[in-house]
Amino acid sequence: MAASACPGSAAIPEAVRAKFVENGQGHVFEFVDKGLVPAGVPSVEAFVEQLSALADDLPRINKLFASTMAAAAATVDRSSSELTPVDESDVLSAASASAAERDSWRARGLAAIAAGQVAVVVLAGGQGTRLGSSLPKAAYDAGLPSGKVLIRLQAERIQRLRTLAAAVAGADPSSVHLPWYVMTSPQTHEATVACFAEHGNFGLPEEDVTLFQQGQLPSFTPEGKIMLESATSLALGPDGNGGIYRALHVNGCVADMETRGVKIVHAYAVDNLVSKVADPVFMGLCLERGVDVGNKVVPKSSPDEKVGMLCRKGGRFSVVEYSDMPAALKQERVGEGEAAPLRFRAGNICVHAYDIEFLRGPAHPDRLSEVFHVARKKIPCADPATGLTMSKAAIETENAVKLEGFIFDVFEEAERTVLLEVDRSDEFSPVKNAPAKGLSDSPDTARQMASDEARRWLEAAGATVEGEGLVELSPLVSYGGEGLEALAGATVSAPCCICLQAELEGLPSSLAMPSAPSSVTLPSGREAVCAEGCSRPVDASLGISGNALSFSVLAL
């Protein structure tokens, strides 16, 4: 222990103190060394835990700050002259591919899933604060009739894929393993773990579900000094979604994938309500092409849509974040008038695929870029006089430099890449903005998109959908419009939720059914169960009339 008359100072292990001092960050002890540990701040013991977790990583962190700031000053990788749009020949369109091509990709993807060669990683570190929720985004209820939260919908898509893959392989679904790696953040980890525990991993095998945390980085002063949030806490935050690669390695996920025989890994963001988890068409395409990295893209809806853009930088595929894209390039069009397509129009939707060898090679922590992205922000910090935390409101100017890695930073290292353009109405309905405010990319727009998709699938199967309101189709019934033959000739009245009979017991306990469900025989001859006049309360923040949803349930 460090020798000192101050109890707080004495609690700092000498080895930990030495590492911070050696790396020019000894100022973090200024309050505890003075005995200035006011009431209301974390304990010195908690501070020691925080310091110890960071101590061995200080050389890398200091180097990362120096190289990132040097690159930012030199405007490295920000020159618009290096950026060119992707060629039409670079992009495959799911819509224009022949039915035979799509069927071939899908069959190959399902075969790979059945063989245990596909793994899934979901970025689930975000909080629901902007949505008016205190829960992780993963546990957010976007207002579908069933009340299923985002992560449950995705788990059920994995379940359905296991069934589809087993059918192709002539196997039992329980023999199909589609491992799911859920990346949380320190802010969401405990709540996400609790959510999975409460729901029994949503029916997935325990050995196929891994929850792990992304890393953290400190905020810095412009001079490179680690900032304190209070006398006894560092100002830490997630290292950006680009932290996925380091986190996958240090938590043993890549090693686990290799042991399982995984060949391709699908990564996506948890806040996409209609995300096609481990899409067999996309997996099959990437396997057929033998690519290092695959990306799904959608045409940008407007020059100012806040999505990154797939382009070429110095001749190599890259993604440029919307905030880094020069304003003039965002506006460029191919032709005259507002109807002309944007020149840079391949929008990134955070749906990626990786060959396992790419994760082992260019995406290994030892080979990752030492240049991150700089964000200058106002953050709460320690009052130099008291050691208490100063709020953002008390801070007049941007006081912090935050370093963030982006998931696509490593794409320039890929030798073989494929871009698949998909229809956003089928695959991209992000839940990012607050509900009931008329904003895009909100729960309102997302659930309407999911409902519209369900209507299209039902009508394509020969059903008639009558009435207004939401139509929800459980992922356990259909992953992508398949398996709906039993509803041919049936009339479905909206609003409604179509699910499996086995799901009825798992619907929200708040769901009110005015009477016991009744048995019905569908025109196809399939026996089903129907319950009319169901309702459930919803959070007031969703802005739904009466803070309740009314609908019918049809269980197959």
From TrEMBL:
Pathway entry: Nucleotide-sugar biosynthesis; UDP-N-acetyl-alpha-D-glucosamine biosynthesis; UDP-N-acetyl-alpha-D-glucosamine from N-acetyl-alpha-D-glucosamine 1-phosphate: step 1/1
Gene3D superfamilies with a match to the protein in the record: Spore Coat Polysaccharide Biosynthesis Protein SpsA, Chain A (3.90.550.10)
Reactions catalysed: N-acetyl-alpha-D-glucosamine 1-phosphate + UTP + H(+) = UDP-N-acetyl-alpha-D-glucosamine + diphosphate
GO biological process per UniProt: UDP-N-acetylglucosamine biosynthetic process
InterPro entries: Nucleotide-diphossugar_trans, UDP-sugar_pyrophosphorylase, UDPGP_fam
Keyword annotations from UniProtKB, A to Z: Nucleotidyltransferase, Transferase
Region Disordered: start-end pairs: 431-451
EC number: 2.7.7.23
Keyword Transferase: yes
GO MF annotation: an example: UDP-N-acetylglucosamine diphosphorylase activity
UniProt key word Transmembrane helix: no
Pfam families: UDPGP
Membership in a protein family: Belongs to the UDPGP type 1 family.
Protein name: UDP-N-acetylglucosamine diphosphorylase
Species in which this protein is naturally found: Cafeteria roenbergensis (Marine flagellate)
Lineage: Eukaryota, Sar, Stramenopiles, Bigyra, Opalozoa
